[in-house]
């Protein structure tokens, strides 16, 4: 059941509050605010404007289809793959670099999905929270205080 026209009629013709409208029509408290806001943005300001329109016309004015998006450049998967092989390079860093080149580019989640709209097979490296070593930080040869041990850490 469409209640959009009734919400606007109660608000503008009867002068009811949003709380009273919500209680009378058994709808959420935020719904009257949203509908009235949409009506004002659509240029409808009085009850007479609404009464001239059918339910379909009113819905078309208040809920227009979303604007079509322009083609945004997709990230290059081969470049991402090569860069991710380097130590300390993450998808977050590559996304920041992508946004510097393309300010109207995709958000992080869409960037991760890749050019085909599905989750990419590229595995991202998570940042350690506890300071524990990761595969990107390899152990190095460290001489001991006595100078007798020159093997990787933990194997002396």
How would you portray this structure in words?
The protein has 156 residues and is mainly alpha-helical. The chain folds into two domains: 59 residues, no CATH class; 56 residues, no CATH class. The protein is built from eight helices and no strands. Helix 1 crosses helix 3 and helix 2 crosses helix 3.
Quick overview:
This protein has 156 residues and is an all-alpha fold.
Q: What order do the SSEs take from the amino end to the carboxyl end, as H and E?
A: HHHHHHHH
When the domains are counted, the total is: 2
The poorly predicted ranges are none
Largest sheet: none
End-to-end gap: 76 Å
Structural class: mainly alpha
Helix content: 40-55%
Total of DSSP H or I helical runs spanning 4+ residues: 8
> What does the radius of gyration come to?
29 Å
Overall number of strands: 0
List descriptors.
156 residues, mainly alpha, 2 domains, 8 helices, elongated
């Amino acid at each position: 059941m469409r209640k959009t026209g009734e919400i606007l009629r109660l608000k503008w013709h009867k002068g009811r509050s949003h709380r009273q409208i919500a209680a009378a029509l058994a709808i959420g408290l935020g719904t009257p605010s949203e509908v009235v806001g949409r009506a004002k943005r659509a240029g409808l300001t009085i009850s007479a404007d609404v009464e001239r329109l059918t339910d379909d016309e009113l819905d078309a004015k208040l809920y227009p289809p979303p604007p079509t998006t322009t083609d945004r450049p997709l990230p290059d998967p081969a470049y991402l793959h090569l860069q991710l092989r380097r130590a300390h390079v993450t998808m977050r860093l590559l996304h920041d670099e992508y946004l510097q080149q393309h300010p109207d580019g995709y958000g992080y989640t869409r960037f991760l999905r890749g050019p085909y709209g599905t989750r990419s097979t590229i595995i991202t490296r998570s940042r350690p929270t506890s300071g524990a070593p990761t595969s990107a930080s390899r152990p190095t040869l460290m001489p001991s205080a006595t100078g007798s041990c020159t093997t990787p850490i933990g194997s002396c």
